[in-house]
Amino acid sequence: MMRRSHQQGFSLIELVVVMGIAAILTMIAVPSYQQSVIKGRRAEARVVINDTAQRLERCYTQFGAYDADDCPIDDADEILSQGGFYTLTVDIPDAATYTLTADPEGAQADDDKCGSLSLTNTGVRDRTGTDDLERCW
Q1: Does some domain include residue 60?
Q2: What is the number of structural domains in the chain?
Q3: Of 13, 42, 63, 132, which has the most beta carbons under 10 Å away?
């Protein structure tokens, strides 16, 4: 009678092949995931910019100037976004204009594609990075 041997476990070659496939998938997935996280955090910059712009517009409607004494937002205010990934700088050079700039901080500082996002009182949006404006905003 012939005995059949029962194989238990994996062979070394099978294990190396599986580890190779896992390494390739990781090399593809991790950078894609990191870019997705950076893109998601950009929404935080848009939120803090738009919220501050709305408050400034309320000041202008109420007092006729962005730099009115009764406005809760002053020139050169620095506002940290909710997650702490952006610092918003408010620049009000005169009563009728402002520029809001959200600079990436901490882990978001690696966002070279869009960099800092800005908005003016006329609604002009901009970025310091090289990516398309619509992708950044």
Answers
A1: yes
A2: 1
A3: 42
Q: Residue 114 falls within a domain, yes or no?
A: yes
The answer as to whether 15 is a domain residue is no
pLDDT tens per residue, range 59-114 = 999 999 998 888 888 766 688 888 899 999 999 999 999 999 999 998 898 888 89
Q: Give 5-26 pLDDT, tens digit per residue.
A: 666 777 899 999 999 999 999 9
What is the residue range of 57's domain? 42-136
